[in-house]
Fold these 2 entries.
Entry 1:
Amino acid sequence: MDAAETARRCADAMYAADLASQQLGITISEVGPGRATAAMTVTDVMVNGHGICHGGYVFTLADTAFAFACNTYDERTVAAGADVTFLEPVRAGTDLVATATERARRGRSGVYDVTVRTAGGVTVAEFRGRSRSLGEPML
Amino acid sequence: MDAAETARRCADAMYAADLASQQLGITISEVGPGRATAAMTVTDVMVNGHGICHGGYVFTLADTAFAFACNTYDERTVAAGADVTFLEPVRAGTDLVATATERARRGRSGVYDVTVRTAGGVTVAEFRGRSRSLGEPML
Amino acid sequence: MDAAETARRCADAMYAADLASQQLGITISEVGPGRATAAMTVTDVMVNGHGICHGGYVFTLADTAFAFACNTYDERTVAAGADVTFLEPVRAGTDLVATATERARRGRSGVYDVTVRTAGGVTVAEFRGRSRSLGEPML
Amino acid sequence: MDAAETARRCADAMYAADLASQQLGITISEVGPGRATAAMTVTDVMVNGHGICHGGYVFTLADTAFAFACNTYDERTVAAGADVTFLEPVRAGTDLVATATERARRGRSGVYDVTVRTAGGVTVAEFRGRSRSLGEPML
């Protein structure tokens, strides 16, 4: 099984168990070693007290792309933490796409960058995730 | 209207419009100038591909407490960004409580710390939010 | 040897080898389990292109307080990362004090908060450090 | 004056006043709109209590590259904050190169990524800076 195939199988196994992402309508559109793309449409119930998408949902989409990207090596890996910068308010009805790429891996730790954009290409958030491998296979 | 009353009225106005928090079952149990406490029960649909609560929901609860804490001065304030460290996996069915306190405010910028604990008092995440006031009244 | 004595001995051992802190005139004025206070005077050669103290030196003072705080348990511990928010410009000649306290420890990981203030009590920066123990004794 | 020329002149003006960078032996080897490269050799007095380069100096080099990158538009811009992940210990005598690139700008705020590598190409730290323009020209 090559690296691309491993990445795809890990993503399939993760997604099947990931009720949270399924229930939010998040789809994983592209996966490869150290990278993943996740998409979600902002619904009316994702709106906060300012009438815009709750930052928690923007974070959740980015965090999902990150989780799939860092779990592409058949090594069960969890999020140790993350930093997010919100650049634009997001309205209900917006289609969002989060693209996660690996910046560094060292031992059991990794750093992943995720950019969240509207379908029209406007960046709405920049996320950086810190991963930690548990040292167990996923498949 | 004193500071405590202002804080409470801002929280009431925010919560009434905050469909996201309402829909997640988040309640705001305590609010004062620069501080807020938010609670949520982790449900079965919040579980991710590792069988534990999706970090996005832990973040969302913390981000909600932060949003209510930084909007207690009758000045519409949004999240510019945040950093989160995940300390413990969280199982479905867990009652979580997020306590937000103000660490610093300077001009239109603020820094808020949020600790997320189980009802039993175990800290599961530490969050630090960066706020930005829009310079508009809320009430 | 009790916890306070262990903390003090670790700090003494660290400081004796810490040429960087010594050369910057940083002093460690108080140490206990999970906490440390470091002080430094901003000199003329610490000024950046905007005529104020280079953020790197404010960070370095905070990072030093953090390093001493997380090395108080006789377990060699390094910085995995940190986040800093700069709140005020700092002029040459200012006496700075950085106070580090432990927020959480879990296994080999820890989270420490450091506040950097002027001698007059004005907060100039808020720092949060992430530590990682190497699992080796220090003394 | 075109964008590349503006960037270069801003860097020259900054560097002339930047005693901190000069005194640390930091050189700015490449500057363009939204980007800059800074280099520094780790000296014996930069070593901390663990016998490796104090994280403050690695941060300072990254922060310098960031400062030059975000000041390339003839708009005086300061660091609002930054996050750093340390990936490798760095020995005295190591030549370090920090490369800063712009990830996003929105109004007066910006996000810049800085990678710090040894001359041999090993990444030792990943830094993300948050900038804030003061709305004043630099030249």
Entry 2:
Amino acid sequence: MMVPLWTALCWPQALPPRSLAAREVPVPETVSPVLREAIAPAWNPPVVPRNADEWRAFARQRDEVRAKQLPELRERLGVRVEETKIAGVRVYRVRPASIAPVNRERLLVHLHGGAYVFSGGETAAYEAILMAGHGGIEVLSVDYRMPPDAPFPAALDDAVAVWREVIRKNPAAKTGMFGTSAGGGLTLATVLKLKELKVPLPGALMAGTPWSDLTKTGDTYFTNEMIDNVLGTNDGMLDGAARLYANGRDLKDPLLSPVYGDLSGFPPALLLSGTRDLFLSNTVRTHRKLRDGGGTADLVVYEGQSHGQYMIVNRAPESAEAFRETARFFDKHLKR
Amino acid sequence: MMVPLWTALCWPQALPPRSLAAREVPVPETVSPVLREAIAPAWNPPVVPRNADEWRAFARQRDEVRAKQLPELRERLGVRVEETKIAGVRVYRVRPASIAPVNRERLLVHLHGGAYVFSGGETAAYEAILMAGHGGIEVLSVDYRMPPDAPFPAALDDAVAVWREVIRKNPAAKTGMFGTSAGGGLTLATVLKLKELKVPLPGALMAGTPWSDLTKTGDTYFTNEMIDNVLGTNDGMLDGAARLYANGRDLKDPLLSPVYGDLSGFPPALLLSGTRDLFLSNTVRTHRKLRDGGGTADLVVYEGQSHGQYMIVNRAPESAEAFRETARFFDKHLKR
């Protein structure tokens, strides 16, 4: 049977979308009460900034809210944070009260999330505090430059510069790298860049619900739209932040959307997501690519969680579980 | 602050459900064209049988449809199927044209899916043909008894009886066990039962999108309702089949819903699911329980797939991928 060329070319678009009726979704009973409270509310859509000043104001406001959580979090997890500079980049050295003996010569480099726009300054270290506290390991959190003032490749350049300097003293095989959301995407992009530069790679990495595709491509961008109450949808804020960061570059450039990169030769990687996560597809597509590349890649999907709630809902037992899980993964794969 | 006791007791129920508006979900571009065609259609609700005769007629009809696929599938994958009996139970011995040298002393025991009601007779071996063909390993598929004639614990008894007999000749450590859907749930329940009986356990297992909770408990029973176009919803057919199988027993009995069992001491387990799978929560809750039990448990979630589509859509490259993935897992964990 002859099929016209245009049919073959256009065929994927020719399948119509599925219509879903309006419905109610209950709060799951299969998570802790603290997490349940975070899952219950509907997504609260932000007002999307329209220019550089509005992005700055928006980021400042978000960061101020998170900064208020930091003293209690440091106190509760018994963690000290010290600001310093490495390779000219501001970093936060995050030390738990007690470092596990096996971790005394190990270090984790942390790249924070926040859509490449938020979570700068002292809030960069928020997730690093959770990791250091639950994992009993020292973490170095990179307060990389961000748009609107410093778009791509500033964040990547800062991550690479800090890494190069860190491994002058710390063996790369004993040093891990991790981050959630944009931090997960940047972790993957940094390893791609280090491969290209033939710089020694981290001994292991964790990419939590990585923003590995900056375009609205992947199943759960649609199926979990509005079910995820952290991100809600890609339209608006996320799309705007992606374009602000990319600064005119193709969003499918592997250094922006690492799922399109060559992930062969990557170190062992742990990927985290949740059943309601808008980035579940970003996570499982990256997982598949890493396995296809021949690497060790472990996937954990948390029941009921939207994007990054293991990090955001820091009082939930599921948060401690995720960072202990990550610590076990690093313990297994980082050189002793 | 004083909180009345009734508030504390009733509080989880007090969180209101989330309302989702009607919407359209596109067919993902991130899967193969063959899979895309299977993802596109809306779920086609079956007429739920109301009595034993209707269940029998329904099962016969479903099995006839699948039986028609078997000759082509055997031919395409170069697999021979031979009916025999072990411990009085009908089984199908499924042999690929070429068995990988490392697999010559290995064997997989297969427990088929079909909601504990369908996929009996020769269709029991459907998934076993895929596994044997893609994995280059011999598979023994158990045509266990099913309701309405033989409800719980007939299926479990048959699985245990066959296993006991198999390991008289084949070392348990060189023998794996696997199944999808009800077959995944039954695989887990059988291992629970073998633990209880102190019979040697399989060397490794694969539980694909396991029906590990026969009650409508777990997040994706709701979030993926109607998004999954294989199962659609738990209401009606699935719930009816669960009750038919349980035959009056508590659906949360761990031998019916193994996610409620003690999964410590389990062999290494591979768990498969999909982003649209109604049983994604069944899968990730089981994954968590296995990790909490200290075991090795690997999770793979396939992009865009509803319940068991890696098995159902047998012409998709994603199907070959899933069974090759499973073969690699067994190769890694079964004794040589």
